[in-house]
């Protein structure tokens, strides 16, 4: 045991086994909702929910264990909430791409991630895109998944006259979702640890008491089969043969790039790991995400990302990689509770989507709204995602407008050639690919 404590530098970090275990447990409870939300989101794409449940847990476990043992940081990784919505609603449903082909796109993006991370290029590429646009992407995804949550809950519905309108709020299932949203909002505002998870539990209990949720015949069962999703990405790699699909891969790269990098920097700052504005062992930390994404694509789940819920574990004292080891092991234990999937209805998961949307929208305050040349493309990204029901379309609108605004305002020196190249790609995407 002493050798483990020495490896994770308990003395230097002023921590101990008890603190690290509680921190790991806290992080797991805070983010365990993804085990049930991810199968629901990807299930809408036609994927087997049981297989996605296992793929979610295993990819989270492996990536988080790598983060803990190799990078030695108390940060957990799992399939990202937001990019999974892009996978389902923008790629599979909107573009009518088979989920197997979309998963092949995730695998290609993951392999590119591994290459870029290994050679240290990943951090450099991130720096080439203006910070305001990165922030806009994150905030826009938040609005998009909140919109999906409101629609899944039935709180908003389509309307032929006004496009969208309020749903029938007196419908029992809608009332259950509203209850979940209010409870979760209150828990978040009161800074209750694992607020999203607790909100889902309370919504489920309310659903059971009102007969809107059915009690499963068992709570523990053998781990579901991975066969429906395992290896499908490899078998369909040759399907990535059009510009449209390569654009999808690019968006997977961009979205996951910014999501993970921003989250890691925020968590590292909270825990006091930053040294002169840089994160030590950043390559190892980013490798954990790249490995998780690669394994996840092979197993059958959307891209992984560092989880902001790791801040809950850090807040209770987690400082070493042992926190992540505990979290990773708990994800493996969680695989035996797949029968609970039947209790997690769209009305139960909708509050989680809406709350995460609120949390991601917080980034809007960092955009330089007083600089219109930057504010305009950022605004199009943020608003474009929910209104076009597509993350990629929202990004395209902003990335095309950005160089135009820079050149028109005689600020071409601030414009990197990489951004001009991206604008050309997205311009072709908007006017040629999306019209096919």
UniProtKB/TrEMBL annotation:
Membrane-related topology note: Multi-pass membrane protein
InterPro entries associated with the record: Azg-like, Azg-like_bact_archaea, NCS2
GO CC annotation: plasma membrane
Coiled-coil segments: none
Keywords, comma-separated and alphabetical: Cell membrane, Membrane, Transmembrane, Transmembrane helix, Transport
GO molecular function: purine nucleobase transmembrane transporter activity
Family recorded in the similarity comment: Belongs to the nucleobase:cation symporter-2 (NCS2) (TC 2.A.40) family. Azg-like subfamily.
Protein name: NCS2 family permease
